[in-house]
Automatic annotation (TrEMBL):
Pfam families: DUF5058 (PF16481). The chain crosses the membrane at residues 12-32, 52-73, 121-144, 165-183, 195-214, 226-245. The lineage of its organism: Bacteria, Bacillati, Bacillota, Clostridia, Eubacteriales. Signal peptide: none annotated. InterPro entries: DUF5058. This is DUF5058 family protein. Keywords: Membrane, Transmembrane, Transmembrane helix.
Amino acid sequence: MDLLTQLNSLPMFLIVGVVVLFICVLCVVFLVRSWRAGVAMGMDKAKLRRAITSSATFTLLPSVSILLGVIALSGSLGIPLPWIRLSVIGALHYEGNVADIAARAAGMSGGLGSEPLTAPVFLTIALVMTAGILAGCILCVFCLKAYMKKVRGAAQKQKSGKKGFGDYMFTAMFVGLVSAYIGSYLGEWTSAGNYMPLFVAAVSAAAMGLFEYLARKKGMTWLDNFSMAGSMLVGMAAAVALFAVV
């Protein structure tokens, strides 16, 4: 039995299933308590139902991109690990990048999926993916109260039209992250002649730009819930089409 078959075995699904079931039960508990608290405050039940319906809708639609992330990672890591990472506290833009970085550090020169997966490499990837995301949970325990004070202060500044340091820092971080990936794609193109990542990134960026234009300029704000999943699907379709042609 190869490693990928073991990663997709019944015991692995049972372990992940228990965790995901616990999260689902916890969500139901919070939903019931929130409903009761709203009723106790005198809120209209019709409005509460509309809030639940709209929240469920706007939760399901963006989750399409998360499902795509699970599918993308499952070919290399099996289904259970990406499933639990992206269904609890994982983030789509984090898990794939960290898995690829860990794979390269563990000896896969071509990145995740470039070579057959071994047990030590899988353990390294799983450890890095899990340990890295725990920082947010730990910081919330010790720093959330002080952080919320900063958030409220930033909200007051935004109302007055002023931008705080956090706004500039987030923009700079995002630009740096995008530049790093575009640089690596350009490096693959110039050194190895592999222009597929750069092509897919360009097509996905164009699709995201189109979604943003329609949402901001044409009043189609509902597209905000599809922009991430839509741009990923367009990028994947472009990669498949280019691969078929070439």
